[in-house]
Structures are given as structure tokens and as C-alpha cells.
Design brief:
Blueprint: H1 2-8, H2 13-32, H3 34-42, H4 53-64, H5 71-116, H6 121-124, H7 128-136
Helix pairs in contact: 2-5, 3-5
Length: 137
């Protein structure tokens, strides 16, 4: 329960979780697209005619998009899939960095406001620059 409460203070946490999942799926698709490329180089699937279950979907996808299933097109298509997965990872990292910055800024503002709005007797004898220096460092 505490974990869910901690996650909820992260700005845009549902979007970030969705982007993490999408980036993971895109990376799996991009990396698994390398198997048909490597198998066409080594000739592993020439006996059965096509790749086993998850890897035969790449050939189906290329046929659906009317792209001929040859080594050249397979290599280009795999490169595009890997680039798209890198783009998804980049977007995910940008959103995480933005949320991290916003979270740190919010926490810093809350703690600074709590210190400056407090009624402590100790703060009355301390200069505001010294308090700010202690908060920052």
C-alpha cells in the first residue's frame, strides 16, 4: 500500500508506466526482429520453410504491408523496427526525466515553505540566507 502511495506522488505516473510498458514491448519487437535476419544468413530455417511461431509474424507483417520478403528488405525493415524501439525508449526517458525534475522541485518547494512558514524560535535568530544555504546544501 505504501508503494502505491509513493508512486502516486510522481507526476504523470500513469503515462510514465504506459510509456515504460510500450518501450519494453517495442524493444522486444525490435530485438526479436533480428532472429529472422540472422537465420536468413545462416540458413537455419531452410528445412522447415519458415521461422517458428513468434518470428514468422515478421514475414506476415511484411506481406501485409506489401513488402517483399527478401534479405535486403528484411534488413531495412528490422532497422526501422529497432529505430522505432529506440525512439520509444528515448521518449520514455524524457518523460521520466521531466517527472523526476517536477517531483524534486515540488518536494523542494514544500520543504522550503514548511521551514520558512514555521514558528520556530531558532529561526528568529538565524538569517534567511543561512537558512537558505542549509536547505540547498
Amino acid at each position: 500500500m505504501k508503494t502505491l502511495k509513493l508512486i502516486s506522488i510522481i507526476p504523470n505516473w500513469p503515462l510514465i508506466l504506459l510509456l515504460i510498458l510500450l518501450a519494453g514491448v517495442a524493444e522486444v519487437i525490435g530485438i526479436s526482429a533480428l532472429v529472422p535476419v540472422a537465420s536468413s544468413l545462416t540458413g537455419d530455417f531452410t528445412d522447415s520453410g519458415s521461422a517458428p511461431f513468434p518470428f514468422d509474424n515478421l514475414e506476415l507483417l511484411m506481406n501485409l504491408l506489401s513488402i517483399p520478403y527478401s534479405f535486403d528488405y528484411l534488413l531495412i525493415f528490422t532497422m526501422v523496427l529497432i529505430l522505432l524501439s529506440f525512439l520509444a525508449i528515448h521518449i520514455q526517458e524524457r518523460f521520466i526525466a521531466s517527472a523526476r525534475y517536477k517531483l524534486c522541485e515540488d518536494l523542494r518547494n514544500k520543504s522550503t515553505n514548511a521551514i520558512f512558514l514555521s514558528k520556530w524560535e531558532h529561526l528568529s535568530g538565524v538569517s534567511s540566507s543561512e537558512v537558505a544555504n542549509k536547505v540547498i546544501h
